[in-house]
Fold this protein.
Amino acid sequence: MSIRLGFLTHVQGRGGDLAQTYRNAQDLFVVADELGFDVGWVAQHHVPLGGGGLPSPWTFLAHAAARTKRIRLGTAITILPLEDPIRLAEDISVVDTLSGGRVEVGVGSGGSDAEYAAFGRDVTRRRELTTEGLAVLRSALSNEEVGTSGFTIQPPAGDFTSRIWQGIFSGAGAEHAARAGSNLLINRAAYGYEEPTDEVQRPWADAYLAAWDSPRTPRIGLSRFVYPAKDRRTALAQIGEDVHQAALRFPGFPAGLDVDEALRRFHSFYGHPDEIVEELRRELVLPVATDLITQFNPAVPDHDATIRALELIATEVAPALGWKPSSEGV
């Protein structure tokens, strides 16, 4: 299996030192770059998460571009209805120019009532606003006139034909992304379902591929919670409580669930690398994915443990699945 390897950070830490949280997240991009990861992703959150959250991903990625050499830099996702798409296109083009063409643009609708209210947007129109914003963003990144006659963005954008992704949460959403010519981003877990996440999401991926009619090859980015350690007990000690507490707070999850059920609902792969590889080989969506995007959220391991987990993903887990590190930009 030939696949690109990514990691996703939600830029969370512990305690109140947010500057350190941001520095640690930047360090992950440097480490991942050195390990050969193909893409580093950040998620946008305007409402604070426990211990942080990143409202301005393109500012963050500009700094990451200066500290890295080859890793691609992406958002999974930018909440498009809360952005001016022309202004967003300018930010994207600046980061792409600074990074030497390493940007990947993931967009979606989000869904937080508080975020939409803060920006004066109607959350009930989020899908419509996403569609409208994406059309303008595509035009702007194609260096077409936008906003008014004679206006195109500066700096001129590179070719983003194959670099725009959409996050989806249904088969209909997957078909919509395919018709728009976007790559597909599939979340780490399917919320609101009793069935295993991969059983729910595989039909979404199939619907996307069936609806795809562009001449270029489509990409499917599969986000998964993957946390390797020396053994399952060690991994559980580092992530279990965080995942459990997050599940107890999560809308739509049943009250009073235990740690094992919390880990199941977040579709977690954890333990010794060999155990994770065996479980990932049974993952139903992975065979049609072109990108495996690993993340540790909602767990917030300490910084050294996080780096060690990235190392194990790059040196033991991903190679066993057919991935090879690249020494050059992809």
